[in-house]
Design a protein that fits this description.
333 residues, alpha/beta, TIM Barrel, ten-stranded parallel beta sheet, 17% strand, globular
Amino acid sequence: MKIGVLQFFSWPERRVSLPTVYDRALQRVEIMDRAGYDAVWLAEHHFSGYSVCPSVHMMGVHLANHTSRIRIGMAVSLAAFYHPLRLAEEVGLLDVLSGGRVNWGAGRGFDPTEFKVFGVSLEESAARFHEAVEIVLAAWRNERLNWSGRYWRFEDVEVLPKPLQRPHPPVWLAAGSPAAIDWAARHGYSILLGPHQTFAENAANRERYRRELEANGHALAGRDLPIARLLAVAESDEAAEEIARAGVRWIAGSYINPTKASGITSHGHAMTMDERERMERYIRSCVIHGRPERVVDRIERLRSEMYLDYLMIAPLSHSSFMLFTEKVLPRFL
């Protein structure tokens, strides 16, 4: 089983300087490079302390320069917000500078604040995202690009640099809704399953993807399908649960709140009973937590229950990351 890390650049309560946030992330990625992780997957977000990494491509160049083995993944490039040729250039350049280590993940996004600020309507965002992805791939595959679509038109454009990996880096699309899963499967794209769906929802989404993929003449065999899971590890189950609760409270207030996704709570008011129940469900059904032995057992169950072959962990504390690296990761290498 492959294991990667979904790397956020969280800035909780701005307790440390922002350069410190980046320095700590670099130190963690250097450990990943030595420890045997498959990839670090960089999360793009805007206008929030939840994760202060507005350019996963610039960050990817920085991390590639300090590592030699680990693959550099985007989880994801928010393609609907980019000019697609600029996106093709940036990811292509990263692939060249990293020695062909890019895993390109692309996503539509779902934060209304980001759509509003970038001037992209939610109603057209899916179609814009789909066309942007197809343009990026066409720009990589063809010596010169000709394109006539709904949002962009190009004539005889040479897009440089081409990626080092030919015809292009491996590609994944973030897919959290039935429509997104179906579109990816119809077109034969591999998918990323995110950290905010429950274990059961991710299992159902993976099965839906398999059915649609095969119904459209594409094979499932040979694909890596990373499933992201929040992670809390400690020397005792009780301590791990406390880390999980603290992490979910931060995520609830900073990102998964009523103005954005399905909503657990938001900053500035006490949780209602309904919010507490949703938070308990989130901890129970979205987070892998416990002492190392329990985490190993949980992952083994997930491998059999949902055909998990690529786990993308999102550690909720640095101590969780270190314990996982030292005591859990070696069991799966």
